[in-house]
Amino acid sequence: MESPFPKVQPRLGLPNLGLGIGLRTCHYAHILAEWPEVDWFEIISENYMDSQGRPRHVLEQIVARYPVVMHGVSLSIGSTDPLDRDYLRRLKSLAEWVRPAWISDHVCWTGVAGRNTHDLLPLPLTEVTLQHVVERIKMVQDIMGRRIVLENPSTYVGFTGDSMPEWEFIGRMASDANCGLLLDVNNVYVSATNHEYNPVNYIQSLPAERVVQFHLAGHTNLGTHIIDTHDGQVINPVWELFRLAHQLTGGTSTLLEWDANIPSFSEVHAEVLKARQFMGLDSSGGQAGFMLPIGQPRKPALPQPLHSIQMEVL
Ligand SMILES: [Fe+2]
């Protein structure tokens, strides 16, 4: 049947890897013993950049068997500090070893004056910031010798001087810098709730042809705001946003992040496989019938913000 959605030339020539999960150390033993049938893995670049020990030994076996993407948390593309050339050198060295399908990081800044906060901080959404970020993306792409992919952040505060919505900033950034986008659907939901804007409008406003990957994750809803904790299952409103994003892009590589209270490999894998229910074009099918009201609290416990980055470097 002909798709009712517009055809886009997706992924900037990058492959659709299917349904993958984030590689975490607690699953090493299972993976090495079972070699489970999972489409692909995403690694946190920093967990392997400076390691020559067991993490590299495990990763060597995984990259021999599965497609792998490198996802970083320290590029700090929005900082006013000079680009960290040593970090980029080490990132490039890892990439030459891993040969990832692509390399991603976040639209944020993580520190200034040489200090790393280990937090993915929001940028002022202004013309000046946009130009600054675009120039730095171009520099990084020149240094790395490849196009990079950047992810929309989850945010809790904004700037009174913001002059454009985040979706406009990110869309223009991707076009002007000629980079790819990692659309974290859960981040859209988290930020849209925290800042009271429409997540559907956000996703519809992005340049679909530049979206090369999706992220999915769970979060913690405290009623007044949402913390992006990656500590549970994906809620149904986020799945519904994924359905929309899948339709608009024609489908692309999809990755589940689970970073706290991590269950068994099988449970994490089963969660990302739920995506299949939302990849059809029949909006009346699948799980659409039990969509939860937006903003429904899930857990009363105090959460750990994900963006207090949990690196697994030993
Ligand atoms: Fe993400």
Quick structural gist:
This protein is α/β, with parallel strands linked by helices and 314 residues long. The protein has a single domain (13-282), classed as Alpha-Beta Barrel (TIM Barrel), CATH 3.20.20. Mean pLDDT is 89; it is low at 281-314.
Name the ligand types.
fe (ii) ion
CATH architecture identity: Alpha-Beta Barrel
CATH class categorisation: Alpha Beta
First and last CA, distance: 51 Å
Keywords summarizing the entry:
314 residues, alpha/beta, TIM Barrel, two-stranded antiparallel ribbon, globular, disordered C terminus, binds fe (ii) ion
Present the secondary structure layout.
Blueprint (H helix, E strand, L loop, with lengths): L18 E4 L5 H7 L6 E4 L1 H4 L4 H10 L4 E4 L13 H14 L4 E4 L2 E4 L2 E7 L5 H18 L4 E3 L14 H12 L2 E5 H11 L3 H7 L5 E7 L2 E2 L4 E2 L8 H14 L3 E5 L7 H9 L41
Parallel strand pairs: 1-2, 1-12, 2-3, 3-4, 4-7, 7-8, 8-9, 9-12
Antiparallel strand pairs: 5-6, 10-11
Helix pairs in contact: 5-6, 8-9
Structure overview:
This protein has a single domain (13-282), classed as TIM Barrel. The chain is built from 10 helices and 12 strands. It has 314 residues and is an alpha/beta fold. Helices cover 34% and strands 16% of the residues. The site of fe (ii) ion has 5 residues, from loops.
